[in-house]
């Protein structure tokens, strides 16, 4: 292969991994009927005159599969934390028990589960598109390298490697989607 013409596979792989990381984060935000401490991470509480993440005003635990508890450190903030949870749009009614706030996670009905699997499929498709865009960028680099003097054999080798990276990344997206859909449909 030519020394002056190089396709950065590590960069392409890193960008594909970034799409996978974004997909995992989107999947974590989907409520599956099962309790998770990540459900309350985006909630901000008006504490001491500043908007503060909920995990910085109390300890978030998952003692049961359908229960999240928040042990608020400052008893004066219990009402504010409860209000922040109610206003968050999670659709969960907090139960206050002294400094501890319990969040019982309701069962998902079949219709809602089906909707969530469709949302998960949309997230996965966005990740696939992002991966394909990275692939296209790599193929464009090969075309530019062709004009700079890259041989056809080298072009074939590079395009095969980029396609292999793409196939692996899309297979990983499909596996993540399948796992998430099974998790959502699990009663």
TrEMBL record:
It holds the Pfam family RRF. SUPFAM superfamilies: Ribosome recycling factor, RRF. The keyword Coiled coil does not apply. It is found in: Cytoplasm. Its main location: cytoplasm. Signal peptide: none annotated. Keywords: Cytoplasm, Protein biosynthesis. It comes from the Bacteria. Residues 23-185 form the Ribosome recycling factor domain. Gene3D superfamilies: 3.30.1360.40, Ribosome-recycling factor (1.10.132.20). Belongs to the RRF family. Responsible for the release of ribosomes from messenger RNA at the termination of protein biosynthesis. May increase the efficiency of translation by recycling ribosomes from one round of translation to another. NCBIfam families: frr. This is Ribosome-recycling factor. The lineage of its organism: Bacteria, Pseudomonadati, Pseudomonadota, Alphaproteobacteria, Rhodobacterales.
């Amino acid at each position: 292969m030519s020394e002056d013409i190089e396709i950065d596979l590590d960069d392409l792989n890193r960008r594909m991994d970034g799409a996978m990381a974004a997909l995992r984060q989107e999947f974590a935000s989907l409520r599956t009927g099962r309790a998770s401490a990540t459900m309350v991470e985006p909630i901000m509480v008006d504490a001491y005159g500043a908007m503060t993440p909920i995990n910085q005003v109390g300890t978030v635990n998952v003692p049961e599969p359908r229960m999240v508890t928040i042990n608020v450190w400052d008893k004066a903030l219990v009402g504010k934390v409860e209000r922040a949870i109610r206003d968050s749009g999670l659709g969960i009614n907090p139960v206050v028990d002294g400094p501890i706030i319990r969040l019982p996670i309701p069962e998902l009905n079949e219709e809602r589960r089906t909707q969530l699997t469709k949302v998960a499929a949309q997230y996965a498709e966005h990740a696939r598109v992002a991966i394909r865009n990275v692939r296209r960028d790599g193929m464009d680099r090969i075309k530019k390298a062709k004009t700079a003097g890259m041989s056809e054999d080298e072009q074939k080798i590079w395009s095969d490697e980029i396609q292999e990276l793409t196939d692996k990344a899309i297979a990983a997206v499909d596996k993540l989607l399948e796992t998430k859909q099974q998790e959502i449909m699990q009663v």
